[in-house]
Amino acid sequence: MTIQNQAEIISIGTEILMGEITDTNANYLVTQLRLLGVEAGRITAAGDDRTQLTEVFRQALARTDLIIATGGLGPTDDDLTRECLAEALGEPLTLNDQLEEELRAYFMRTHREMPLNNLRQAMLIPSGKGIPNPRGTAPGWWVEKDGKIIVLIPGPPREMLPMWQNEIKPRLEKKFAGRIVLTRTLKVYGLGEAKVNEMIAPFFQLANPTLGIYAKPDGIHLRLIARGPEAAGLIGVTERQIREILHNNIWGQDEETLPGIIGKLLGERGLKLAIFDDGTRGIISSLLSQVEGSATYYSGGLMTTTDEVKITMGISSTLLAKHAAVSAEVAEAMAAVVQKEFRADIGLSITGIGGLDDEKSTSGECYIGIVDAQGIVNYQQKLLPHRDNMRNLAAIAALFRLRQRLLEG
Amino acid sequence: MTIQNQAEIISIGTEILMGEITDTNANYLVTQLRLLGVEAGRITAAGDDRTQLTEVFRQALARTDLIIATGGLGPTDDDLTRECLAEALGEPLTLNDQLEEELRAYFMRTHREMPLNNLRQAMLIPSGKGIPNPRGTAPGWWVEKDGKIIVLIPGPPREMLPMWQNEIKPRLEKKFAGRIVLTRTLKVYGLGEAKVNEMIAPFFQLANPTLGIYAKPDGIHLRLIARGPEAAGLIGVTERQIREILHNNIWGQDEETLPGIIGKLLGERGLKLAIFDDGTRGIISSLLSQVEGSATYYSGGLMTTTDEVKITMGISSTLLAKHAAVSAEVAEAMAAVVQKEFRADIGLSITGIGGLDDEKSTSGECYIGIVDAQGIVNYQQKLLPHRDNMRNLAAIAALFRLRQRLLEG
């Protein structure tokens, strides 16, 4: 089948409009649709209001051939999704024997009596089919009419996700079988978005694969999406060309993360890491610890914000007096101290407390020190001042340098 | 002024429809509007497409008197929000001298040359006024026409949030001055959502104030919203009744955070805190450091995941052999060690590495130790196992206990 227009997502529930819950379904569904080669043209969140919701369906039906709607399929009087879609399509809503049977079986299985209200969930329209919901009482709806597909899915993610994966995605995959869609994400660090944009400008003009650029906490992400039977070849050629241009600034791809890559490198080599942190205040640690099994290679470390404690921990007071805490010399000394004290193979340090604590006065300067079997190095890192996420940026900088050093070693 | 209909939120950007970013602005804005006594009737996410976006504005203008739109105000050719609103309102878009001047001043201040494209951000329509944006190049728009208000705000939250708080919220407050709406959020720790629900069940039936309950990372939040001239009295009575029931489990209210409360208590008393962290892996540190000026009372600490390093840092090997790392005794010893080594007034520790690292095998048990001038205490903390945010929960538990101890002292 061909989708003439972009798909639309409708998220239903007054609780979304009240701010009581954040609509995470829509983001999940547009991402999933993209992997099927289908773009979304609009997301609408509407309340449990009969007039409004019917209008939302009517307008969407006039624009698109594929509507995915979640929510409003509960048993209570303010769950109006079924009624409103029926009205927008001009079809009668009647009790469906099979759905009623399945609903009664669900209540039997969960040893509960079925309130009369739940019968609302067994209602259906002539052009619709029920979609089984093993996790709840609300069946989904699969409607095909006049070349259009409308899918209704319960709103709670624990019901929505398995219904999408097990029932809806496979059906849509069959419908869109002709579309092969491949994606490749390249992750870049050390260059600003504008600079990356400029360096690979011509590739943004490509129609297949398309190229997108996104500023993320861990740097710039480039996403290639290729379609059609030649997708693998097309994406491969463009990826190679971009890699030649951005070279060492690309640190990972697809699902890779900096802490994950570092964990893999350390794990393979049986190396242990310790950190002396005066700059990110625990953020490097919490990032590294998000990787499962990180305790096997990450031994922990020291965190302090004062010269006094640094001296207690073994940093020379003469060195501190001569160079000040935010300096290449002190960063190197900190890396050496934590490597020794924590009996680690690699000591990583970051300075920058004075600067990074008070964003108004900072120059954004910090130093990263690394000690390993090859010796001791430091990197000066200039962060954009006046950013409220400077400590995060500093942590990413330290992780990037550590990865770089591990690859050199 | 009166809003005849519900307000509408429009979130603009193809990256939302591609699933590249989750739209968090809409949730923030509907919550904020509620505090002004304004309900939202619809949220629409639309892409950077001239025809579609103009249609979205036209339809919203036909339905509502208040539109808040975010995104699409950047300098590039695919930032079309200004053009589309101008077209929907039938007004010409022209370069505004004052906005241009402010834009040039922004680039001067940040020592950059202004690309010609940025002039797009100085365009305005006759019924619009610019809203200053100290955090970026895109001014907001405040448009009043035919009794309707349309506000345009840049999409990035770090620009959106201060513009909302400092510029837009105060103006809307003035417009809606007749509506008295008061809110009070009570923050609860140590009781599950179902338990809290049960304890204060009757209050959920109230019409004014209304009561909402929300599970948040730092515990359960209860939100009271009262309307009308009697709002202050109504909210006060209910708040007192709920406080009597939940008592010491309420740790804060409204904008208060655990790290903020702890910072205030430590700051007032001139006390310094150090942490020995074997459980949250840096998360306590990063939470405490989110408070401005935390370096004055938070001295840092030690983080380790192994017995070996604990022994190097001064924990007795006999103690470790006798009680194991995750024990009340070792938690107390860790608190004492870090208090001494970091010359702090208060030593806080948390154990639990074995359990918290491998979520499959854990019992969820951890211990929190606190040493202060009054002596040494420990708290056993049982966390729900198999939760993907156990380290966060452990950090909140440690902060809650520290607050409790500071209030007792």
Report on this structure.
The structure is a homodimer of 409-residue chains. Chain A has 409 residues and is α/β, with parallel strands linked by helices. In chain A, 40% of the residues lie in helices and 24% in strands. Chain A contains 15 helices and 17 strands. In chain A, the strands form 4 sheets. Chain A has a 6-stranded mixed β-sheet with strand order 2-1-3-8-7-6, with helices on both faces. Chain A has a 5-stranded mixed β-sheet with strand order 14-13-15-16-17, sandwiched between helices. The interface between A and B is large, with 65 and 66 residues. Strand 2 of chain A pairs antiparallel with strand 2 of chain B.
Keywords:
409 residues; 40% helix; 15 helices; 5-stranded mixed β-sheet; homodimer; 24% strand; 6-stranded mixed β-sheet; alpha/beta
Average pLDDT rating of chain A? 90
**Which pair of chains forms the biggest interface, and how many residues does each contribute?**
A-B, 65 and 66 residues
Determine the structural class of chain A based on helices, strands and strand pairing: alpha/beta
Q: Which oligomerization state do the chains in this entry correspond to? A: homodimer
What fraction strand of chain A?
15-25%
Which descriptor suits the 3D outline of chain A?
Answer: elongated
**Total beta strand runs of chain A:** 17
Compute the CA-based radius of gyration of chain A: 28 Å
Count of helix runs of chain A: 15
Strands of the largest sheet of chain A, in order across it?
A: 2-1-3-8-7-6
Terminal residue distance of chain A: 53 Å
Q: Which spans of chain A of ≥5 residues are poorly predicted at pLDDT below 50?
A: none
Helical amount among residues of chain A, as a percent range? 25-40%
Most strands sheet of chain A: 6 strands, mixed
